[in-house]
Structure formats: structure tokens, C-alpha cells
Amino acid sequence: PDSDLPGSVETSQGGDTADVAVSIDLTVLDAKSAGAVADAERRLQKRFSIGAPPAVGEHREQGVSVDTTPAAKRLRGDGTTDTAVGVRSSGVERTPVAGDLRGARFEDSAKRLIRVNSNLAATPSCQTKPLTFEDARTPTAAESARARALVRAESNTLVTSHGETRDEKTRLLPKVNDDASGNGNEAVDVAARLLTKLAAKPQAVDVTWLPGRVGNLSDPVGGGFKVNPAVLLTLKEAGIGELYSHQKRSAAEVLKNGGSVVVATPTASGKSLCYLVPLLTRLSERKSSRAVLLFPLKALANDQLLKVQQLTKAAGRLAESGSFDGDKKTLHRLRAISKITSATCDGDSSDAQRARIKTEKTQIVLTNPDSLHHRILPGYPKKWTSSFWHNLEFLVLDEAHVLRGVGGSHVGNVLRRVLRVCRECGNENLKFIATSATIGNPGEHVFKLTTVDPVVITESGAPSGPKAMVLWQPPALKQKGHGHDAQNAGPEPSGVEKRNSGGSFDDSFDDPLMDSDSRFQESDGTVPIARKSAYREAAEVIATLVRAGVSCLCFVTARALTESVVRDVKHLLVKSGDQGLALRVDSYRAGYDQAERRNLERRLQHGDLTALVTTSALEAGIDVGVLDATVHVGVPDTASGMWQQAGRAGRRGGSSVAIVVACERPLDSYFLTRPKELWARAPENATCDPTNTAILEQHLPCAAYESSIDVAKDARVFDDLVSARRMREGGNVGVGHQNPQSVSVGTKTDVAAGTATDGAPKPAVFQTPFLLALRRGLSATRREDDDNKTTDSSWNDGTPLLTMNKTTKRVECRQFFRPHIGVSLRGAKRDGPDWVVLDVTNGNSLRHGAVEIEKVNAHGAAKRIYPGCLFSCRRGVFKIQKLIAEDRVALCVLVTETSQNKTHTTSPLVRVTVTPLSPDPKTGVPPRRSKLVGNARVAVSSGRATVTEQVLGCALECRWRKLLLHKHEYETPLACTKYATDAVWWEYPLDVIHKIPPDRLKESAAGVLNLLISLVPSAAACDARDIGGCVFWKREAGVDAETAAGDGNEGLLNPVPNDGCHEITVGLCLFDATPDGVGLVTAAFDKLGEVWEKALTLVRTCACEKGCPGCVNAGGRQHQETDKKYARIALEGITGAWMT
């Protein structure tokens, strides 16, 4: 268009690269045209004005920042962008071609609003210029909110509350050298700048700086070992400097001493080089050598595959560049390293890819325990030939600390099967290289997994920046009027200055809970009755971090919470006008398909995501790029888990922040009054039991399928001396008037283990876990009914799984039977195929518009999907309408989100019945253990028991406050599951029962149970969901015992008035909430007295009067009535506090 016409675009011509703004005169346009142009401007702004790119340092394996991106240099004003010749710069400022608006820079709408208002205020009315359409229009609510926020931010940066300028205050913060060129330009850490604002908030209960570490490059003690020069050159070419001390020592132990090793150092210490250096050295030296790298996650295997391939490419690049002037031997080794082949073999690999791995003789196979169990081991000797197993020299266990509990016990048996196959192929020198987070027993744990005693390396030589640990308590909600006690606010931290607890982290946030429940209000002059939800508070913290450009991970405890927290964060960002930032927030958890997971991982690594809400799926060492902060919703149950999660941030050597948002749980309440104790917790021991008879019983048929069992020879692989000795032990242990071996839970009588009717000890039958599992496999299996078939009906067809070959004297697997499919490494024992959640909103079948939402594991599915359940996933919230049990399909419809139902959730009402099993060595039920605990000398028993769960109905509640809104009971209870597991139980002493009114015994026991289930994980190094519990009671007049559930069940324990005719007995039971158990409550059995003492301390120090989620109303059992007063009396009785 002609440049003289109004509305033309003024810009530079002739290739001038000067910064020229675009001026558009909208005064002569009509309203419709002006509106169209304004809309186009806003669309362009949304497309191009996405904010400045973050300054991200390139992370190397040692955890140091050795380079800086061009975007970061532009932010510092550094003119040298290191742009390659012929490559156009990716700068934000662009010079548009005449008439082209695609490269135009438009002002931020909020900043423009501030400028227009200030101009109007400063300009006299007689001199006011004609306003453009964009200046004269009414600002949107989002623009107004952002404008106010910018004004507040600018005013806050001028002067602090103490009168000093912000520039003066930031000089006190930690600084890092953020200039990769080494010019010494110092920039204030983003995390340190953020901490200044966080520490001033009333929610910050405690802020503790943990000092950084200085790097250690020393050689191993004793000397005599040097890393191969070709390997060092390869690392240098890949951008990795000199190795740290623990990396050198690991390589020396494997290559020089020929032993196995476990490296248990903090996160981001370069543990992957501890096994990559030995692999590159040995596999380039001996081409026939093979290595299997075992990762707990597919994403972690793919991430490490890229690192291996980068190293091999770097060696090839250096060898073929012509610039190498070293000796011929080193050049030959470089070429050998470049020819090392590697590939992943997992469930996402196609048949063609797996065939290529086997035919091309891939040297490094990256896989996971499930693929090793289901695909690789069953392929011996036809697909994975004896040549592979004979040359298998290394087996790497990455993130070995996650191989604990039931899953770790299964993996331990898979590794024993690997050892068997290797020995069958003449390979007796398989070496294990394990890496682990900081745990209390790395050597013992790896020995249990592998039967090989490794060298333990715990001293890290990698440097690290300082880390700030922040304990964050959500503000108290306040109430108008009367009817609630002010004491129910939960514990107040001791030793901390009392602040105004009514303020919230973001005053502009409109809590939907306030709209749906008018009983809770925040206003002046009222008393606190409860605290704001930790998940709501975490959403506000994340939104603040995103606005500040701080990249972070948020860890939650349940899958359904990931999408809920993400929705709240996006709501906050959109409300404040940061719609573009809302696109940089997403969720990550198990259950997503492969494409979704890879896309999220790629976006996070490339910096396209600022915040990611996840479960423990990202707790492992996946490369997540450079992060500045982590947010933890709830105090992690274990110290190992807390430091592993917090270590995900601060990988570039600068400072980082970990914000622990306390929930209303006893463990959180305990540490709120002792924050320093939280940061000083010692790492717990990892627990697993591969010699568990029930688990062995599943793996022996798999082992026999791979290679027939030589009983005498394989006993050294599968048996354990400690377990065998314990199984042989028996006898009666009397403990006074209460014999723990005759305590009844759900049975009328229970004979003591190893005791005959005349009181004489029974002769113990010589058994070991391996021999007992072998005997069961040789026995006929039970035939299942047609109406109750499992995944593989051939498993239980009435014939034995194992057969004895009388000619070879070896045990073989049943012919034409592959047992691997019937064994799940996740702990669920053949509970059938997964349930499919089907959205029938637009059709009643897949052919007519129904959509598959998600698959749910069969074990425990009844507690996740049930009629009336609200099922949350990435697609939204769905309501389960009907279950089709024969097809394992749950039909659901999409729930329209409103201001009311978006705060609602459901929970199942579950009845739990626990029946102790009588000890019987022939059937694998070991003798019980018993001891007297506490000053009151309470008799406590530990043994095997059967747990039966039934879903009685569902409860509708408020998601964040756990307020019961409605309860629905089914006419016929849903059968959930029945399994054998480990249990611990004890009875109330008689003097405790006499001090508590009979009508309050149920409430007292329920409160104690809630506390103990929440505190046991801190003693057993497990998750609270791994522990179950129930209350049992009986009358001496012959009435059968009855059990009460601990999962929201109410009304099952009906106390009987103590009329003098019947003596009431009340007790508690804790059990492993996984089939077959793995010894979690057995580990807690040894520390039960400490758990009781901690529970009593919590009840005494909690500020509430009748109970709160921080004490006796902990967990998901808040629909069951509790009594704090009598729960305290019960704890004082069983701990013997009355006697002190």
C-alpha cells in the first residue's frame, strides 16, 4: 500500500537490522475494522511475545555448568551469541519486511495499560492526543490483574521493609559464575532470589541452607590404576572433563580388581559414568563381551541409550577427524569404542527391533526387569542363545534403591535366574555394577538382590551447589460465627515466631472450597478451624514459581492428584492473565501411553515446560534438564526419597530450593514442630525378601522352563541361610498371662506354633524356603471354578507345575506350558487381566463412539473403580456407572465440570477381615515371633495372616478438606481381594480397657490405628499405602471375633456394654497391604516401641481438642469416628507412660 495512506506500516528498508517498532494508526478505521486489527495484534502477541528464554546452562555428567546457551547470553547482554555461520540467529527481536506484520513486536497488554494510564494522568486534558483503538478500549480483567501485579512488583523491587534497596539485599545471596566463557560475570541465582520472597511469607516454618560440596578429583587409594587414554579422550570429546574420585574408584574396582560394586552417592553425582567407563573400556577391548543394563523405567533406559550413543559417536568423530596425533594403539581403541553397538529391548520395541538386537550381536542391551523376565530369559536357548549368556560380563542395576518391597523381591529372583542361565552356559564371572541413591544398607541390599557381595562406594567426589530446604505450612482457614472449636487447627510449630496465619500465598486466588462450603471463611476476627489444603497451597506455590521463570518439579503421592494439581495451577495462571504460561505446565505419571511420555520428557529436557507435576515416576535419574526448584506435597515418608526428589534440582552447580508443603498427616505434624530433625533424618534401610516362599513358588517354574533345576546345585542360588534357619526354628515362647501365640483375630481358637496339646515342643521339620517352594510346585495345583478363572487358566488346572525327570534327576517345567505370563513383578499374583475404563458418553461400544480411557491393574482395581466412583485422568473426570466383571470393563461418562463438582471426589468404604494362620512348616507358614514391648510389657505377635477386603459402598467428599458429603452403601458388597501376607497384632492391656468407657473403645482404637499406619512407613522405609490395619474385638463368652476396617469404614465395630457378664478384648492389627507380604510390618515389629512413643508425642503436642488430620484423623479414614482423649489414654497405657 501507499505509505501516505493512513494505517500503513512504518518500518526500515534495505536490510537494516535496527530495532524499529511498528506503528499502526487505528483512529480512521471503523469499529469493525479496528476490532479485527486489534484481534490480529493480540494473536500475534500471543504467538511471538512468550517471554524471554530462560538462562539454561548445559549440564554435564559431573553436574557442572560448562556452557551457556545463546539465549542466556542475550539475556546478560553478551553480544557473542556463538551463532554458526550461515545459521540465522534465534533472537527475539526481528526486523519485519515492509508490509509484513509477522515479525512485529507488540507491547505486553498489561505494560501498555500501565503506560496509557500514566500518560493520561501526566498529560493535561487540552493536550491529550487522539487515542488509538487499542489504548481507548476497556481492559480485560486479566490485563487489569496483571497490571496491578506489575505495579506491585516494581514497587517491591525499589525498597525493602528495612529501607534497603533490593540491589543491596541481593548481594547477600549466593552467587554462581553463570558465564561459560570464564569472564567472571556473576549473576544472582534464580533460586536464591526466589528464596528471599519465600522466607518472608508466614507459611515458611523453617528455611535451612545446606552447604554445597567441593569436587574431589583424586585417584583411588593405592594407585596403580589409570583409565584408558582412549576412554578419557572420548569423554573429553563429549564435553566431560576429568572424572571424579568415586567414578575412578568404581572403574578401578571393576576393571583392576574384577569385583562387583555398588555406588550409593547423592543425586546428580554422575553415577552413570561409574558403569559407562568400565563398559567402554572392556567392550572395546573384547568385542565378544556383552552387557545388560537394567533400568526401572523405560524412559530412563532411552535416556541412557542416548548417552551411550553420544559417547560412541564422539569416539568415532575423534578417530576419523584427522586431528588425532596420538599413538596407533589409542587410535585403534578409539575406533573400537566407536563400533560398540547398543539398543533398548523393552515392551515398546517391535519384533523386528528385537530380532535385530539378537542377529547383529548387540553388545549393550538396555532393558527393564519386566522385559528381562517376560522376553529375554524365556528366549534361552533358542532366541537368546548360549553364546550371549556365556559372554555376558556385566549386569548393571541402575537405581537399585527402588528395587525394594514386593517388586524388589521379584527382581531378586529374576537376577538369580540370570545367574543360573549364565552358569549353565559356563559363565561364572558375571559382575554386577549397581547405582543407588543414599540408603542405609546399600551393600546388604545389593547382596540380597544378587547373592554377590559388592564393594560399597558412598563417598561422592562430585561438587554441588547450596540447597535451601523450606518447610511450608498452609495458612489456617477461619470461620465466622460459632459452632467450631478454635483448637482444631492442628499443631503450631514450636520455636518459630508466630505470624499472621490467615494470609494466603496468593491473595488473588479464589478457593472453590469457599464457594462450596460456607462454613469455612477467611476473615478478620475469626478463629482458625482447619488449614488450607496442601494441594491448593502447592498449586499456588507452583504458579508463583512459573511466573518467576523458575523451572520446577512437583511430587505428589497419588496418580489422580497429578491432574488435579495441574488444573489448579492453570486456573491460577489464566486468572492472573498468564495464559501463555499455563501451556508450560503439565503432568506426568504412570499410565500414560508411550507417545505421551516421550513427548513430555522431550518438552521438559528442551525447556518447553516450566513446571511438571509428577508421582515418583520422575524420582529416578531421568535427564530432566536444568531445574531450579522442587515442590513436595507432604513430607516424604523416607529420608532417602526426600533427598532423591530434592536432588532433581540444582544440577548445574548453582543453588536450588526444595519446598516441602506439609499435609494434615501425623508425620507432617511431627516434623512441623521439629523441622531441624526433618533435614537431619538418616537414610533408611531398603527392604526386600527374595527368599519369600510364596514368591519363590512363582519363579521356580519359570526357572525350570529356562533350564531344568538341579536341586543340590540351585539351592545355593535360591536359598538363604538366615531364612532357612528361621524356618527351622520353632517352640513355644510364653510371656506371662497373655500368650501372644494364642491371640485370636477373626478365629475362635488358635493353637500356639510348635506346641503340642500336652505342652511339649513339637519336633521341627527341616525345611528351607527353596525346598518348600519346590515341594509345592511338584504338588498338584487346585482346579479353579469356571466362574473364577485367572489370567492363565493353565496355571491352576489340577496338575503340578513342576515334574521330576527320573532319568536326569532334575526338575522340569510342565510340558507345553510357559509360566512367565502368570507371574507379575509388581506383586499382584495372577489376578487376571487389567480392567479397561471405557468412556460411553458418545456411544456404548468402541465401534459406536466409546473411547478407552485407561487400563487399571487387576489387583486392587475394586478400590479404584466401583459404581459411583469419580475417576480422574488427563482427559477429565469421569463417573463410573457400571462394571462388567466377566469382560473386566468399567463403563463411565464424562462429568461436566462445575464450581461444585470440581472440588468433589469419592473414596471406597472397605471392610477388612484379618485371620491369622496357624504355623505349619509343611505348608510354608513359619513360626510366629513374639516379644514384650514398652514399659507396660504388652505382648506383640508377628506372623502370617489372611486378609479379606470387601467394598461396601462409596463416600462422596470434598477433595481437599475430606468433608463427608454423602455416603452410599451397596446392596451386595463387592468382592475386592483375598491374600496371605505378614501381620503384627496386639491387645489392649486390661487396665487400659478399664479406663476407657465401653462405648468409646471403638473410637479410641480407630484413632490409634490411624496414627500408627501413618507413622510405620518412617520405620519400615515404605509408603503409607503399603501398610494396612484393622481393629479387632471379642468377648470371652464365645462370641466370634469381628474386625473393623481402617479405610473409611464405619459402624462395623459395635462395642458391647461391659455388664460384668462378658469381658471385652480390643486389639489392633497391622499388615503388609500386598499379596504374600515382604516383611514391612516385620521390620516395624522390631521398632514398634519407637512408633508407639512417636504416636504418643504427637497426640500430646497436637493443639486440637477432639482430633484433626494431623493426629487421630490421619489418612483416608476420616469418615470413621475417633476420640483423641481416649486414644491418648490408650497410647499412654500400651507405652507404660503411667509408670514413668
- Average predicted local confidence, pLDDT: 74
Q: Ends: how far apart?
A: 95 Å
**Percent of residues in beta strands?**
15-25%
Runs with pLDDT <50, length 5+?
Answer: 1-29, 46-138, 152-188, 480-528, 730-766, 785-792, 1037-1062
Cα shape? globular
Mind describing the biggest β-sheet? 7 strands, mixed
Helix content: 25-40%
- Give the structural class: alpha/beta
Written overview of the protein:
The protein has 1140 residues and is α/β, with parallel strands linked by helices. 32% of the residues lie in helices and 19% in strands. It has 34 helices and 34 strands. The strands form eight sheets. The protein has a seven-stranded mixed β-sheet, with helices on both faces. A seven-stranded parallel β-sheet has the order 8-9-7-10-11-6-12, with helices on both faces. Strands 28, 29, 30, 31, 32, 33 and 34 form a seven-stranded antiparallel β-sheet that branches. Strand 29 and strand 30 form a beta hairpin. Helix 8 (229-237) crosses helix 11 (298-320). The radius of gyration is 33 Å and the shape is globular. The protein starts with 30 loop residues before the first helix and ends in a 5-residue tail after the last helix. 47% of the residues are buried. Residues 1-29, 46-138, 152-188, 480-528, 730-766, 785-792 and 1037-1062 have low confidence and may be disordered.
What is the topology?
Layout: H1 31-48, E1 57-59, E2 65-68, H2 70-76, H3 109-122, H4 133-136, H5 141-156, H6 166-170, E3 175-177, E4 186-188, H7 190-199, E5 204-210, H8 229-237, H9 245-255, E6 261-264, H10 273-285, E7 290-294, H11 298-320, H12 328-338, E8 342-344, H13 351-359, E9 364-367, H14 369-376, H15 386-390, E10 392-397, H16 405-424, E11 431-436, H17 442-450, E12 455-457, E13 467-472, E14 476-479, H18 512-516, E15 527-531, H19 534-547, E16 552-555, H20 559-575, H21 579-582, E17 585-588, H22 594-605, E18 611-614, E19 629-633, H23 639-646, E20 656-661, H24 666-672, H25 675-679, H26 693-706, H27 711-718, H28 721-728, H29 769-778, E21 802-805, E22 810-813, E23 835-839, E24 851-856, E25 870-873, E26 876-884, E27 889-894, E28 904-916, E29 929-933, E30 938-958, E31 964-987, H30 990-995, H31 1001-1020, E32 1027-1035, E33 1039-1045, E34 1064-1072, H32 1080-1085, H33 1088-1101, H34 1124-1135
Parallel strand pairs: 6-11, 6-12, 7-9, 7-10, 8-9, 10-11, 13-20, 16-18, 16-19, 17-18, 19-20, 23-27
Antiparallel strand pairs: 1-2, 3-4, 5-13, 14-15, 21-22, 23-24, 25-26, 26-27, 28-30, 29-30, 30-31, 31-34, 32-33, 32-34
